[in-house]
UniProtKB/TrEMBL annotation:
<keyword id="KW-0472">Membrane</keyword>
<keyword id="KW-1133">Transmembrane helix</keyword>
<keyword id="KW-0812">Transmembrane</keyword>
<feature type="transmembrane region" description="Helical">
    <location>
        <begin position="29"/>
        <end position="50"/>
    </location>
</feature>
<feature type="transmembrane region" description="Helical">
    <location>
        <begin position="7"/>
        <end position="23"/>
    </location>
</feature>
<protein>
    <submittedName>
        <fullName>Uncharacterized protein</fullName>
    </submittedName>
</protein>
Length: 54
């Protein structure tokens, strides 16, 4: 979603750390980070669609 600059930077850093853990073969940590990132993006989408007034 990334509807603000802050959330875009946050998700960029989150997924950069995800890539680091994938490349260093820490796959369970990478899986946790991916699950958390996907959940936070879904929460952001729900917030922007239902609670943010345009």
């Amino acid at each position: 979603m990334a509807n603000s600059k802050v959330s875009a930077i946050f998700f960029l850093l989150l997924y950069a750390s995800l890539l680091y853990f994938v490349f260093t073969m820490n796959n369970m940590v990478a899986m946790y980070i991916m699950a958390i990132g996907m959940f936070l993006e879904a929460c952001e989408g729900v917030y922007c669609n239902f609670f943010k007034h345009h």
